[in-house]
Amino acid sequence: MTPGVEDSCVTHCNNNIVPLLPRNSVHLEFKNLTCTISMISMQKMGFEKKHILKGVNGCFKPGELTAIMGPSGAGKTTLLNILAGYTTQGAHGEIIVNGTSSCASKSAGRGGARYIRQQDDLRLHLTVYESMSLAAALKLADFSSHERKEKVYEVLSLLGLSATTQTVCRDLSGGQKRRLAVALELLSDPSLLFLDEPTTGLDSAASASLITLLSGLARGGRTVVATIHQPSALIFEKIDTVYMLSAGKTFYSGSRSNLIPALESADLRCPPYHNPSDFLMELASGEYDVDLEKAAKTMERFKPELTATQSVEIPVISTIHTPITLDTKKSKEKSLKGNAKYQQNCSKNMYRPSGPFRQTWILLYRNYLMTTRNYSLFMYRVAAHVVIALIFGYLYLGVGSEASSVLGNYVYLYGSMLLVVYTGKMSVTLSFPLEMAILKGEYFNRWYSLGPYIFSILAVELPFQMISCVSYVVLSYWLTDNPLEPNRATLFLATVVATSLCAQAWGYFIGSTTPTKIAVFIGPVLACLFSIFGFCLALRDTPYAFRWLHHISYFRAGFHLAVHSVYGFNRTKMHCSKIYCHYITPSTFLKEMDMADIDVGSNIALVLSTTVLMHVLTCTALWYRLNKR
Ligand SMILES: Nc1ncnc2c1ncn2[C@@H]1O[C@H](COP(=O)(O)OP(=O)(O)OP(=O)(O)O)[C@@H](O)[C@H]1O
């Protein structure tokens, strides 16, 4: 840990203020790192290997802000992803964390790294304070609520967000959103922080302020690594270590202050009044006629001359904008003293995440808050069901009790199943891929485990869909004058709700396994395919090769149950207002529709077991996607 840091920590601990300091420093080294991706090539009509990283080496130290720079496509994000353990596909080489070596293809154990991705993974309907306090509740199980509150305010003040506590995240500026993303991860004081393009989309003032902040965090003993596309001179001044990539190879790796002498050692002179980072970028982009490999080797061999008296600049963590200079020897002594006291005072494991039950409770509360802020979505959904119920009720008014309009009622029943299947399925099929992005970030940064997350999502979505279905059924069933005998009406209602929840389970599976662009057509195509069985196509007319689809179709099972609940169970003759009604006896209709002998129990079992199966498959697919690196 950087000297001086412990001083600040001990002061905080003695004052019973939770220290905003990392517990262990992380020294990250990587050797001969390569990344090769196999991809389909249309030109070669086969697979082609793309070498993204070509044996890069480097070392990132605690207390330093390292910028990974390079032209677009140089491999910055790929390197960051591999170092963080976020994606390790095609990666080879050695990653050494505090002396412990591991293979780059394994994602485990990167010194408790936290990764802040380019897109802001924020819950936009929560306020800044709510986002922070809920994250603190998830991450800091051993803190009392008072300690958590203090910690939240401490981090918010450190990141200059104190004035925005009651602002809803969606109303924050780009820079504030980026700082909040950092604040959320700082709650657990990570020792190793990765940020992908943190300044992208920010103006120069916001970028400079964010980089100052990251530099301050690094001074607190953290290892902070950020990819930065092209830093301005002001931002470049705040960077400690520069790691320059050019076409997947290391062009320069070393301190910012040594950059100019190192370049000069390779006969590369930065023009006067030229931003050194711009010059470096121009070189790496091949804008000068320079042998980059030869220059990189010369710069690698360059050894800076050390000055006799070395001192370090260490801004105090709580006032990071006012650096103070400490003598190295003195600070070392203080550090040792402070470290002992720190260990003594802060011996409990402060960054233990909460247990599964508490996680479930917190996530449920978070979903409840987000839903109340965004209740219009729920209202629209219920309103849409009510409007359709009124339209169907008007179009098929009284068809349920009349023998001459049995076919009309049959179409109403089919239309009802189509409606609840599509609304149940599509609402989650389309929204879940968007949710996946945030889930990936939060799960990777160890906010919670998968079980509590899924439970909390279902606990909100299931009642929503049930309320929507019930409002549709009650209104339309009554308007169409279908039998109101309690057993029939209850079976019909339960069938419609269960089929809709089954479709929703399918929606979760499709949404969690396919990108939105594919999900938008796979969802309707599958619903359409399953819906022809039973209504448009009786089993006896189905070719043998496709009969299995008839048997596994939850839509067919739900539809058969719905028709049976209305016309089955020995329903007596219906009223006929015409001279002749072919279906005056409901059993005649069931026989002609090939539904006279359906097994109610096995159809209920099919709908329920498909629902459970799809949820199990969704959990498995999610677990695989979240843990596959
Ligand atoms: N999974 C992948 N499959 C195929 N190519 C990939 C994959 N990931 C990255 N690449 C390619 O590797 C190269 C480096 O990508 P990377 O995102 O790391 O670059 P970058 O330096 O971060 O670029 P930028 O600054 O534009 O974000 C690019 O050409 C990219 O298209």
Account of the 3D structure:
By secondary structure, the chain is of the alpha/beta class. It has helices spanning 5-14, 76-84, 128-139, 145-158, 174-186, 204-219, 233-237, 259-265, 276-284, 292-301, 328-345, 356-373, 375-395, 406-444, 450-479, 486-513, 516-531, 547-552, 554-567, 586-592, 600-627; strands at residues 28-41, 46-60, 65-69, 91-97, 100-103, 114-116, 192-195, 223-227, 241-246, 249-255, 312-315, 323-326. The strands form 3 sheets. The protein has a 6-stranded mixed beta sheet, with helices on both faces. A 4-stranded antiparallel beta sheet has the order 2-1-4-5. Residues 1-19 and 307-349 have low confidence and may be disordered. It has 21 helices and 12 strands. It binds adenosine-5'-triphosphate. Adenosine-5'-triphosphate binds at residues 37, 39, 50, 52, 70, 72-78, 229. The site of adenosine-5'-triphosphate has 13 residues, from β1, β2 and α2.
